Amino acid sequence: MTGPVVTNTLAKPPDGGWGWVIVFGSFMVHILADGLTYSWGIFQVALVKDFQCGEGPASWIISILVGVTLCSGPLTSALVNRYNCRTVTIAGALLASAGLAVSSLAQNLLTLYISVGLVTGLGLGLMYLPAIVSVTCYFEKYRSMATGIAVCGSGFGMFLMSPLLGFLINRLEWRKTILITGGMMLSCVGFGALFRPLETTVEDVEKGSELKPLEAKTKEEHQLNGQPPQISLNGKTPTSPTSNGTSDGDSPTQNGPKRPHSIHGAQGILDNVATPTISDKARLALSQPQLQQVPEPPRKSAFGSGIMYRKDVLYGGSLANLQHHNRSNSHVDNRKMSHHGSRHHMTHGEEKPLMRNRRKSSRLDDRPRFCGIPCAQETADTLQEMLDCSLFLEPVFILYVISNFFTSIGFNVPYVYIVKLASDRGVDEDSANLLLSVVGLANTFGKAFLGYVADKPWVNRLYMYNISLTVCGLSCIMCIACSTFTTFAIVAAIFGLSCGAYVGLTAVVLVDLLGLDRLTNAFGLLLLFQGFASFIGPPITGGLYDYFQSFNHGFIFSGLMVCISGLMLFAIPSIQRLLERRSAKVGATTDDTTATTPIANSNS
């Protein structure tokens, strides 16, 4: 009778129950957070009039807000891993609400750069990721539908918020309107409170651990060989000691044996137990195997201190068809595969080496560090995973990052300036405000449709993503040819339908290209580049307007950026085939070398 495996097992998604309440909470958070962000163009018109400034300086407010929201993704992930979705969302709602309330007193643009851009942007960043993660933790079979409903709140928020903000600004001016908006944002405290942590059950402890099959298999092999079973601690099975007192595997260090590099392999951490050397464990297993029985740790919430250890936590698509979509994407370098293990079903012995195991200590010098800064273990694990730059060795990922950078430069321009552009072309102000509602409504249908089609096994999701981005860019350019509300509404609908791919399919395509095991790393780096591009996109278009007194140049530039970002990704299949041929040549050379080595040895 073997003892329990030392692991903090993550709870199995129930696919329903309280999960639907969380879907509702996430939907409402998206309505308020994204509704404000994507409807900011209405505030933009009022701010330019009130401060008598150019479009360029005023556009830095929304640029900083979006940039900070995206760039805070890795930090938010670390906080979610250290605490939980509920706590982080509530903190973000309080911060965003406070930033908007202070903004109502602003007397210059610099104050708004800080209060709206930095403070509210960080608050929205703390709300955005937990609103997604909280849903994926509760759903597996119905994950695609649940996340689809939640993110549709973004488009629905635009549909509701743009006419509401326009009405309030016309009646109350922008200062009172932004104060009211801050009060509305405060309601996200209640919606975030709905993100109840998913508790681990006894069944999860018995069946959910990935280590148990490995441990059972190892023990069975030893029994067949007439050897006593060896005990696993912290996910490591000790091997026979060598003459120098160490095992044939990883050598222990002063901090204990090595552990996987991927944060997804950190579920077996037992920080409060001093780790003996492998030779000690082997000797103890032979003499007193009962003493190696480690008591089962207390069960705790999967949301708190460890939810980001799930490798699929950022994946919003259906897991049922995941294997089919990845079957034809074997471009990952075999050398990388041998290091990282299977792209979709990694075992603990195959995962990337993580930081060395550390015992929790009150001493500051003994705490885990990230870039030299002492922090909690969960924080260090998450940041190290999400900001691991070794992924830039993948040519496909580099191309995808460049594409997303170009997309983010032009993506936000229609949201910020379409109201002003329509007003300059003779459309009345109330009708111009409704254009953002058209974009939001079309965006809602676009996300739902693209999400549904993307789950079909016969769909090439990369091509669908590329085509959608290309159409999105073309619709941005077409805006300069519009002169009536009807033409603007048609182009706005096309833009809204197509731009849903950028938000809804980004993580899905990443998994198709790089594998589920590398999603957390890729998504973290991608958020940074999206944030950097968002800082400069609207100000470029605003600056061009201030110089030429026309939006034509800015909309053409932004549309071209989005078009190029979609077209360049059509080169990915060719790059994949090139990598496969190169990998095949390397493998053939290795086989030839291995085959000729015994012959050379026998001749000698």
From TrEMBL:
Residues 224-256 have a biased composition (Polar residues). GO terms for cellular component: membrane. Residues 396-604 form the Major facilitator superfamily (MFS) profile domain. The keyword Membrane applies. PANTHER family: EG:103B4.3 PROTEIN-RELATED, MONOCARBOXYLATE TRANSPORTER. Keywords: Membrane, Transmembrane, Transmembrane helix. It comes from Lygus hesperus (Western plant bug). The chain crosses the membrane at residues 18-40, 60-80, 87-106, 112-133, 145-165, 177-195, 396-419, 431-450, 462-483, 489-511, 523-545, 551-572. Its main location: membrane. CDD domains: MFS_MCT_SLC16. GO terms for molecular function: monocarboxylic acid transmembrane transporter activity. This is Monocarboxylate transporter 5.
